[in-house]
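[Q] Does anyone have a clean structure-token version of this?
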Amino acid sequence: MIILCFLIFALFSAGAFVVYKKAHKSQNLLFNCLGALIACVLLVTGAELSVFNVNYYSTKDYTPESITGKAIECPQADGTLMFPTGEAIDLLEINKEIKNVQFTLGDDAPLSTKVTIHITDDANKYLLKTPQRTIYSKIKSSQSINLHTAGISETLSIQFDGTESYIPIKDISINVPRDFDFSFTRVAVLIGLIMLLYIFRPSSPIYGYTLDKAKDILPALTVGFVALQVLVIITTSTMNPAFWGISYSDGEYVVHSLSTAHHNQYDELAQAILQGKTYIDNNDVPQSLKEMENPYDRVARYYNEHATGDKYGWDVAFFSGHYYVYFGIVPLLLMYLPCRLLFEAPFPSALGIVIFAILFSIAVFKLLGLICEKYFKKTSVGTYLLLSMAFINCCGAMFLVKRPDFYSVPIITGMTFIVTGLYLWLKGRDCTRGQNLYFLLGSLCCALAVGCRPQFVLLSALAIPVFIGYFFKNMHIKEKSGIFNLVALGIPYVAVASGIMYYNYIRFGSPFDFGSAYNLTTNDVTRRGFDMGRTGLGLFTYLLQPPQITGVFPFLKAVSVDTNYVGRTVMEKCFGGMITSLPLLWFSFALPKVKDVLREKKLLLFSCMLFALSIVMVIADTQAG
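[A] Here you go.
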């Protein structure tokens, strides 16, 4: 059967090759692309019918057998095994060669569960521990695990790990033939990826069109690639349905709060504001927390909770006896508060992330298009589209879309406002009509970004390289129109800053206190301070840490943070430093080589500030925790 599998793939591959070669004998570009698409469809279909279903062919002759009854020590409920998490349950006297194990999960099984299998065979008298696997209740293929044993197995031991106390299992079977699984989603994704590689291959004619000579086709191409990016965003966001907070009941969709309480903070704040409050508790903060000597000490809180039986809030700002939301208020004003006012329901954070990720993508295409049009007119259409797609998919935006939780909301909204603000600034600086409106809206976007995450205030410094030549080298500042331009740039900052500072003052008694130091999480930020010992670690981890590559999909693993810093530091898990993980950033090291070109185009200061601000941002994040 395996031979048949690879024979099918070989036949389809040969057909694809023939179609591709014949199509490329023609000089017609449309015919070439159509031939490439047909060849791609043949190749991917052949792979789907063979390689991606190799488990079907290799297990077709298996004889399935249920071993559920051999788990004699496992508790049951209504005929369903209830595996306690963290404990190994033995299945004895199997006495068969086990080629795979298939789990049939109960109706109330969690979305994902980690399972570790221990097994004996002819080469291992005592239980051999195998690598941990993850099974998903919504993905049937993940519930079957192939085993590679040496002969007959007498004992099988299974241990589930997860957040639930028990994992419901309806049945455990061995040597189960796998179903034939033709995945249209996988076919579509592979065709899309291969066609992208074909379009952007080095010899592609798309690099023969420069932006200044392709204005007739550029809008259509841009819209097409934006639409593709939108499709990727929507598809990726649905991979984690638990974050959407939407369920289907009695013929209608219902928006509800998430099971993890602190992920509902924005909605809780929206309700509080409608009640005239800025804190999110109902005057029910435990007295034991208020009386603690240091409530920001996580270990002390843990012991206090166990001693008193009280339950304390998590990742909220605790100040003067109340819980506050220390995340930026702008996303709340734009999405959560209007949703509460209009529909009296919580706004799904995932929906907000999708909306702003789409707006972010559009803003990136517009910004890079404007920069190329202004400074690099000979840029090819292919290079422009590649850079835009790389910017969007490699800057962290898609990570936020993949995990569309509460924490991702202020980040993606701030990113969108910053990119949009830069575009409006550059657009307004070089246009002859409506300058003040462009400047006003650009500054409004950049100011609102600070109301999403205070760290984005650093990027407002990019106004210096954008406008220093415009106002001072050309002495536009002395003209009446220049004064109006400057006022248009400043008014939004003053207005937004006034609102944010007032909001801070009525909560924490200081216009400059955003409240992040009072968060009830892993460490006491009020005493964290600035320690140079953390700086090197932060720069290495966030910029230079090599990625950890594995042989298991998706082939990347979160790196562990090893340090000689003997003290308290908090680092977010990452998959490698930005510079080492993103080859596109390696061109940054060419800055000294191209400084004369950048100086001529008046981009040298802008480029240097971007590099410097990234260093400052990393240090600030490392120190703030």
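[Q] Thanks! Anything notable?
[A] The mean pLDDT is 86.
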